[in-house]
Amino acid sequence: MTDFNATRPLFSLPHGVTYLDGNSLGPLPVAAQDRMAACLRDEWGEMLITGWNKAGWMDQPRALGDRIGRLIGAAPGTTVVGDTLSIKVYQALASALELRPDRRVILSDSGNFPTDLYMAEGLVRSLDQGHRIETPAPEDVAAQIDAIGDDLAVLMLTEVDYRTGRRHDMPALIRAAHEVGALVIWDLAHSAGAFAVDVSDTDADFAVGCTYKYLNGGPGAPAFIYVAPRLADQVQPALSGWLGHDAPFAFDPDYRPGPGIDRMRVGTPPVLQMAALEAALDIWDQVDMDALRTRSVELCERFIEGVEATCPDLTLASPRDAAMRGSQVSFRFDHGYAAMQALIARGVIGDFRAPDIMRFGFTPLYIDEGDVDRAIATLADIMAHRLWDRPEYHARAAVT
């Protein structure tokens, strides 16, 4: 079991702030400050370029990948860290399409995070081979798999809807896709660190995810990619960067993919960001994922009950069944942006997604019942007295 009273002090949270936005950007792990300072001072500062060998910078993407692998049910040597999530989506999709050359349909859903669809659109356009992307409603994906049948090349889904928190039944969808011969890309952006995931037992083909949300790696923290062992030596990376080469420092004029997951590396590793992520994963090494999930559900249920009892103008947008939700709760309100700005001004930080979604993330590592109750009371006061209806709360900022 995990002692969540012991994990809370491991994060740097401003006094008086209730932080319910870890599903968008996790807070700073206290240890990351010293770890990054040491990397700057003792490694970059003292070792200079020799840090790639002496400090192990070049090996960190695999080492950190294995630590994330523990949280997603991946065997050692099948996950690597680096680049951005958009890059990893592109890599996975390009590789999957090449493995299914006679098929033309990429199936996603209308609730997928837009960047995944943008990357797919760009790839389809550049390939110019007649591929098409289908995006039915999330609840219709299973039926669409059967309808497309043997023309389905890739099923590409984000397990948890970034707006509502609705959770796909990924094991069932993976089985259905495999039955028609398709490959599956599983985006874990809102799953990794929110609940237990098992890419091995579910026989996932590819999985990708970011580390700056629930994993607390910091803004701009590198993404990760998993490739099933049965495919790792078959994939031919479309983004054939020098660090995915079999011998990067041989500087061969022609690309030769590295073994297994190494070929999914692209550019130079972000050393300072990996230092912060390393400190964050030290916390995750002591977390029991089943205990985390149980606690997350308790906090979410408490929040839903309290908001529905005190804020009749808000409508639950997330599934009521906890098994169908990630670790976030969303409510709809026509003036949701303004109401969220009013909340933030009073020290309760969530976020907003157009057109009307107020999102709240619940991470038991640093959120407890007191935080939930404060958030409910603050939101109830704002709604009861229309405190959101002030000009400053309606002015849109660049990031919502």
Provide a compact summary of the structure:
This protein is of the alpha/beta class and 400 residues long.
SSE blueprint and pairings:
Elements: H1 4-7, E1 11-12, E2 18-19, E3 28-29, H2 30-47, H3 51-54, H4 60-72, E4 79-81, H5 85-99, E5 105-107, H6 114-127, E6 132-134, H7 141-148, E7 152-158, H8 170-179, E8 183-187, E9 206-209, E10 224-227, H9 229-232, H10 271-284, H11 289-310, E11 315-316, E12 328-332, H12 336-345, E13 348-349, E14 351-353, E15 357-361, H13 369-384, H14 391-394
Parallel strand pairs: 2-13, 5-6, 5-7, 7-8, 8-9
Antiparallel strand pairs: 1-3, 4-10, 9-10, 11-12, 12-15, 14-15
Organism: Aliiroseovarius zhejiangensis
Pathway: Amino-acid degradation; L-kynurenine degradation; L-alanine and anthranilate from L-kynurenine: step 1/1; Cofactor biosynthesis; NAD(+) biosynthesis; quinolinate from L-kynurenine: step 2/3
InterPro entries: Kynureninase, PyrdxlP-dep_Trfase, PyrdxlP-dep_Trfase_major, PyrdxlP-dep_Trfase_small
